[in-house]
Write a structure and sequence with these properties.
The structure is a single chain. The protein is 84% helix and 0% strand. By secondary structure, it is mostly helical. It folds into two domains: 6-65; 69-127, no CATH class. Helix 1 (6-29) packs antiparallel against helix 2, helix 3 (69-88) runs parallel beside helix 5 (114-127) and helix 4 runs antiparallel to helix 5 (114-127). 19% of the residues are buried.
Length: 129
């Protein structure tokens, strides 16, 4: 099998998560009609699918991080620019806006989602101007 792209791995993670949560809803919606063994079977499959979803997410993050150097350089530049600006700024609203952008960037980086990182990075750059 060919190697998945980060986007393909994210799509698979989303699809498996959706299938697992749909099975969970089915199990609860039909609780009284299912035997204990059937409920347990569906729950085990649900957990297996959620685990697969998590595995695909890890694959997506790892693939996205393979090309992290250019993004990391931009993050370092904007973070240094924001630090320097905070030291000089007198307007609290601008300082807070930059701090909020930094927090959002942190969350995006920790999520591993390239589109969220790019968006938060652009916002941080705008906030630091």
């Amino acid at each position: 099998m060919a190697t998945l792209s980060a986007a393909q791995a994210r799509d698979l993670a989303r699809l498996y998560h959706e299938l697992a949560t749909t099975l969970g809803r089915y199990r609860f919606d039909n609780w009284d009609d299912l035997t204990k063994a059937r409920r347990a079977s569906i729950e085990a499959i649900e957990r297996s699918l959620l685990s697969a979803s998590s595995d695909f997410t890890v694959i997506a993050i790892n693939l996205a991080l393979d090309d992290v150097d250019p993004v990391l350089k931009r993050i370092k530049r904007v973070t240094k620019r924001m630090t320097a600006a905070v030291k000089k700024l007198k307007r609290t609203d601008k300082v807070i806006r930059m701090a909020e952008a930094a927090v959002k960037l942190t969350g995006a980086i920790l999520s591993g989602a390239p589109s969220a990182i790019a968006s938060a990075l652009d916002e941080a750059i705008r906030a630091s101007k």
